[in-house]
Amino acid sequence: MLRVAAYDPPRLLDMISVAGPMPMHVTYAFEPHPRGTLARIRVRGGGGGFYRLAAPLLGRQVRANLAKDLRDLEARLMAQG
Omega before 56 cis (within 30°)? Predict the structure, then answer.
């Protein structure tokens, strides 16, 4: 579960985990771009032990999830016109 730490539409959405197996901090920053909107996404996580060993695998999974989320968002926005 994530808690919104900062929200400044349409530029910023910053969230921090409040429940789950490891601490996470996710920041979405948006800025105008000639072809639409540029989204910069930063995901930071903490944890030691297992999470440190699993970091490469977890990183790939996070990137795949973000890519899917962005594809879904684009599809919804395009459907709205």
Answer: no
